[in-house]
Amino acid sequence: MKHQEQGPYREITILGVILGILQGVVMTAAFVYAGMRLGFGIGGSTIAAIMGFAILKGVFGKGTIPENNINQTIASGINTTGSGIIFTLPVLYLMGYLGQDLQSDLKTLGLITLAATAGSFIGVAVIIPLRKQMIEFERLRFPSGTAVSIILKSPGAGPKKAILTVLGTLVSAFVAWLVLKGFLPEDLPVGQWLGLPAYTQTAIYLSLMNLGAGIMAGGGGLGFAIGGVLAYWVLAPLAVGLGWAPIPEAMSMVDGEAWQQNFVYRQMLHPLGIGMLIGGAVMGAFLALPVLKSVFKALSQAAKTAASGVKSASSEELSIKAIYGATAFAFLFLFATCYLIEKDMPLWQCFFIALAGLIWMILAGMIVAQCTGTTDTSPLSGLSLIAVTLVLFMSSHHILITVLIGVTVCVATSQCADMMQDLKTGFMVGSIPVKQQVAQLAVAWIGPVIAVATVALLWGYGSQTPGFGPGTMVPAPQAQALESMIQGVVSGNAPTEKYVTGGFLGAVLSLLPTGGLGVLIGLAMYLPFSITLGYGIGCLISMGITKCKGVDWVENNVTPFAAGLIVGEALMGLGGALIKIWDIFSPETKSIIQMICLVLVVLIVLTALVIAVLKKVLDPLWIVFGVAFLASTTAALKVSMADGKVLHTPLLLYFVPTLIISALITQVFKRRKLSNKPEKADSENVQVGAYMGPDYYLMHIRACFETMEADLITIEEVQALCLRMANERFYYMQEYGIENFARFFEPFSFAERYTNRAWSALVDGYREECRANWKFAGEQFSEALLQYEQLSQK
After folding, report:
1. SS in 3 state form for 436-468?
2. What's the domain range around 727?
3. What is the C-alpha separation between 290 and 510, in angstroms, rounded?
4. Spatial contact of 66 and 431, defined as CB atoms under 8 Å apart
5. What is the rounded CA–CA span in Å between residue 617 and residue 625?
6. In DSSP terms, which residues pair with 187 in a beta bridge?
7. Same domain for 164 and 206?
8. How many folded domains does the chain comprise?
9. Same domain flag for 81 and 224
10. Tens of pLDDT along 326-372?
């Protein structure tokens, strides 16, 4: 490992920001098209992290883990807005409000872009105060964020973890490929094999990404699986048995069972689940008021603390004034667009619609963050449908303003989920939160512009046939669903009573000791049972292995493999989308694209080698990597151009093995150079009992700082102790109360993040930065122990 020590630790850099913006723009345009064609969105964090590692480290040879985290934060922050746009905006084209003439549509498209931008700013701003609560205190898993952090940390994680991650990626990608090609079904019909009624929807979603998310959640996600069991194995049979879902007499038995299954899900469980999501989120926010109050108080002091030069947890968060300012500014934009798009509507009515939209964005953002933090699944469409229903009633069925608010809510909630995933990644690699928050706020306007422009381009103004919708190559299925829902609400068929009932149940369940139970069970009712059941199996697997092998073994062996399961399917999903899009092009166009790709690959690899040689940072192993990449890609493209078809087998046979081998050799080489000790110390003996108490862990951690230097093994020893202490947090909350718990757990979490930062700095070659972070982390751990001792004396 080459010692860098070239000034301050690289985090927010021009190179990282530009790379993040470029990746975000490209992914937004591509994923909007893919989402409108396939009916689902694609996350970009994993791809951005991999590309950032390849370019920042491989090409320029000077990227750091936090710098790549900023790159990935920016790229995914731009890309994530596309998920909100594809669900809502196309409905205006399908319903005839847009699409006749581009010049006359520009005003409406411009206003929707401004509203979406406002939603993007609101989504980032309103979720920031919940970072401490969800990531540090509740320790929500955020499976995708955790998986990305494992990718970012791969240079120093050691060959064992790298092998497990790569293995999980390959297994997941292979299974996803089998499903994509039709060799395996999307759902395993377990209920059919067991002879269960169709309305129980007993099946297992054949998604290793879903299974991996359950494994990473462990026992904390079991409430989600229990909610699915309650919904489909208790409530559904009860509803059918009581005659609430009778089969119409005119239908045959087969058609009747299908109708009954759809009725139970769409008319009963689905709206009930949405109501529970809302009620659970409201009650959860109410119960968390003591902590949130202290968080807002700390954020209000952030500017003063930062100005004084004293480093503290609050000084590394965006100040509350900045959050209020961004939210207020975005709200004014939203209010203005509401008025301009419906000028015949009274000003006061536009104001209250915009205010209702803002309140709903905050609440929906909390729901989405809670759901993605626990299950990695986002009920984005359901929350948007609630917003559309509400605005339809408030606006007396004005479609334009309804869809405008729907766009804003969709974009805001998707930004909430993405911001929290990125902040989770940042916590695990030691990034400074305020830098991530500022970076995502700074580029929040780019995604809506690109996404709206892409939708308009896809429509194909001036052509005789529409560019998307029923009967086209781009069916936009989510927009079709929204169109049907709007028509249903206009005709008076909204299930309002089920929303209210579900809200009451969600609020009551959230009062139970298990945190977030109302939201989890509501999400389980909202989603198909096949997803919930597969996720629950993952939770049980994790719990079983933890019981047999212990927490450390799971964290070091199971978590990297589960992260690979998430990454592999995500990459294959992107590949499958690109393959389907590829089939549209003519053979001549395909040949041109292939030649361009070949030339770009050659130029990138040659540029990387030349830069590395000139800067004297080239390791011989990078030559192996570059040559293998160049040779495999060239061979694959050459074979594919021979007969005008894309043959993916050569790509796998040439590229994947050489990539894995060279990457693993690089990991082994780096690990040997990083380690100052011959073998890792045995940390299992620290875990003596099921519950040790904060003083036990904090004293052991302080001993590490007093007797050992900041080498990789010692830092990982402290990280393991932090993990064990964090796993006991619910005992601390019950024993000391939430406010007292926060007194010692806040400096503990602050110190843990700086321990992670010391690890990243050491891996990146910044030893002085590592020592400074290590020293500061030790001071904060001592502060946490002092706070705990004072609390114990009382």
Report:
1. HHHHHHHCCCHHHHHHHHHHHHHHCCCCCCCCC
2. 692-793
3. 16
4. yes
5. 15
6. 205
7. yes
8. 3
9. yes
10. 889 889 989 999 989 888 888 999 999 999 999 888 888 888 888 78
